[in-house]
TrEMBL record:
It comes from Xaviernesmea oryzae. The chain holds residues 395 to 677 of 677 of the full protein. This is Uncharacterized protein. Residues 24-274 form the EAL domain. The lineage of its organism: Bacteria, Pseudomonadati, Pseudomonadota, Alphaproteobacteria, Hyphomicrobiales.
Amino acid sequence: EAKGAGRNALRIFRPQMQSAFEERLTMAADLRQSMEENHFEVYYQPRVSTRDHAIVGAEALLRWNHPRRGMVPPNQFIPLCEETGLIRGLGLFVLTAALRQLHQWQQAGHRMSMSVNVSQRQLADADFAALVEDVLAETEVAGPSLELELTETMILEESPVLQANMNRIRRAGVRLSLDDFGTGYSNLARLRQVEIDCLKIDRSLIKTLPDNAAVTNMVVAIARLMDVKVVAEGVETPEQAAWVRDAHCHEIQGFLFGRPMPAAQFTAVLQRQRDGERSETAA
Ligand code: C2E
Ligand code: MG
Ligand code: MG
Ligand code: MG
């Protein structure tokens, strides 16, 4: 009977699997076409200082402006880009666009840095660090103005290519951060080996604040023990902002202080901040 059930299951699931497969093929083709036709855009979300809420940086977040489906969020297409290898080209597009934009903002006098997400596939390329150096040189951005966001699972494996890339990137002065911290199983022994500059506490932990603070407290304590910069992600309420300030997190990224937005809109926000500073010193 087991055999029969298996055959039945196959008959039931085959059409579904095939359509999912076809959908992925269509999407991969759409992605390739959109890359050729420049249907991707980089949005920027502010990162503010916990102390005075001044903008100290931005995170570059990729958006796909699909000709028929409209704006597609990254969680719906990045995994497929990673599986197909398209992330190499897209990742380079994001890095180049973000650093060009940062150069413009810095030229306009805004002191800020830029954070860019990196995928496992990119970091596993032997020439990734050299590519980062090339883009920095081409866009005339100093290494310390760039922060690359990695995740814990990416650095778990002790591969020579990964280590060489990380070493070379850090030698260029570029900072490394761990994104979505506190969501996975943290290998503390491994964390002590890798040199990182910043931990970004995942928004699922911030979401529980201020009522259920036990786990978040522990994660902040780990971050502070490691003596790195601590950023709280996903802060949406003034209560959460107060909590992370009292917990001595250094920076905040969250809807309370700004959603991801197109570059032109971010420019306007930076300009308003500067005008505010001017009127403060004049008063
Ligand atoms: P992430 O790197 O953790 O980026 C932060 C995500 O949290 C963004 O979602 C942002 O919109 C969202 N977020 C920030 N503050 C809040 C808040 O207060 N409330 C809520 N509900 N959400 C908040 P987004 O832009 O949809 O990006 C999702 C993920 O896609 C990113 O998570 C990152 O893992 C990935 N991603 C985005 N752009 C790139 C890219 O250029 N390359 C790679 N490899 N991954 C990217
Ligand atoms: Mg990130
Ligand atoms: Mg992430
Ligand atoms: Mg995150």
